[in-house]
Design brief:
With 312 residues, the chain is α/β, with parallel strands linked by helices. Helices cover 38% and strands 18% of the residues. It is built from 8 helices and 9 strands. The strands form 2 sheets. A 6-stranded mixed beta sheet has the order 2-3-1-4-5-6, with helices on both faces. Strand 2 and strand 3 form a beta hairpin. It binds guanosine-5'-diphosphate and magnesium ion. The site of magnesium ion (MG) has 5 residues, from helix 2. The site of guanosine-5'-diphosphate has 16 residues, from helix 2.
Length: 312
């Protein structure tokens, strides 16, 4: 009917627009205290942003996180600016009574939706509404082997025979209704490869049994291609990650890693741990999808709920 129209020129226009405007991307880390959340925030930034910032071998202890705390860096690549914000949260689980330990975190997530909504319903809207909504929530789980092994030293409290703790299940169940949850197995360097595989499978089973839909949610696959790609990711979730904020020399190169008696565990080496998979999913392959689902699904249901409330 039409001959060649050349509509693909729109791709260039979109690109130019994104380059001019830049975009925001917000991640949050959640989980029990001491699992390496704050370290992971540094790992994410050090691997991406400020390579030169730290001196090899220089110890800087990460203080215990006592309140929600956001760090923002602008990352620029080929003229595209990404404003990456990572929100660190205090670990829960320190108290004897962990009831409602998710309240401050859920409150924070909802507050960001509320902020966005307020801007959106103004008569004169900003051309670009500042977006502080959480696009991805990395949830740290630690599964202790049935023999109550030496990870973390909380044996007896945390041990649920290699399965997820009820607290983690409940927390993730609540979170997954309002935000994209990406579960990870923390401190994977303390697990053997067999343990990693076994825990992974058990966690997948637990999530399924309790109908907790983590990212990428099966319901939101767009088409068969999408499904095939996401199925491969779902098989690997939760990623077994290792965090580190120290750099070391390996074969003349500086790498981020944890130095042990037996060698250096390189966090960015896919042969050593799955941090590269997590990083790739979050800030490369699924970045736009995380933003889309946040906007079209999670924010949308918040918006509907809120507007219904105020119409009553
Ligand atoms: P947070 O309470 O979850 O923020 O945990 P931190 O990041 O403060 O880390 C608690 C302790 O665990 C620190 O001593 C870290 O050096 C250590 N740690 C962090 N990540 C890892 C990891 O991947 N493997 C191991 N073995 N230790 C880690
Ligand atoms: Mg911390």
């Amino acid at each position: 009917l039409f001959g060649y129209v050349g509509i693909e020129a729109v791709l260039d226009q979109m690109k130019v627009k994104t380059m001019k405007m830049g975009f925001e991307f917000n991640i949050m880390v959640v989980g029990q205290s001491g699992l390496g959340k704050s370290t992971m925030v540094n790992t994410l930034f050090k691997s991406k942003v400020s390579r030169k910032a730290s001196q090899p071998g220089q110890e800087e202890r990460i203080p215990k996180t006592v309140q929600l705390q956001s760090v923002t860096h602008v990352i620029e690549e080929k003229g595209v600016k990404m404003k990456l914000t990572v929100t660190d949260t205090p670990g829960f689980g320190d108290q004897i009574n962990n009831e409602n330990c998710w309240d401050p975190i859920i409150k924070y997530i909802n507050e960001q939706y509320e902020r966005y909504l307020r801007e959106e319903i103004l008569i004169t809207r900003k051309r670009k509404i500042p977006d502080t909504r959480v696009h991805g929530c990395v949830y740290f789980v630690m599964v202790v082997p049935p023999w109550g092994g030496g990870h973390g030293g909380h044996a007896g409290v945390m041990v649920v025979l290699g399965r997820l703790r009820p607290l983690d299940l409940e927390f993730m169940r609540r979170l997954s209704k309002i935000v994209n949850v990406v579960p990870v197995i923390a401190k994977a360097d303390t697990l053997t490869l067999e343990e990693r595989a076994e825990f992974k499978q058990r966690i997948q089973e637990d999530l399924k049994t309790h109908a907790i839909s983590v990212y990428p949610q099966e319901d939101f696959d767009q088409d068969p291609d999408d499904r095939a790609l996401n199925d491969r990711i779902r098989e690997k979730i939760p990623f077994a990650v290792v965090g580190a904020d120290q750099e070391h020399q390996v074969n003349g190169k500086r790498v981020l890693g944890r130095k042990t008696k037996w060698g250096i565990i390189e966090v960015e080496n896919p042969a050593h741990c799955e941090f590269p998979l997590l990083q790739d999913l979050l800030i490369r392959s699924h970045l736009q999808d995380l933003k889309d689902i946040t906007h079209n699904v999670h924010y949308e249901s918040y918006r509907v709920r809120r507007l219904n409330e105020s119409n009553r």
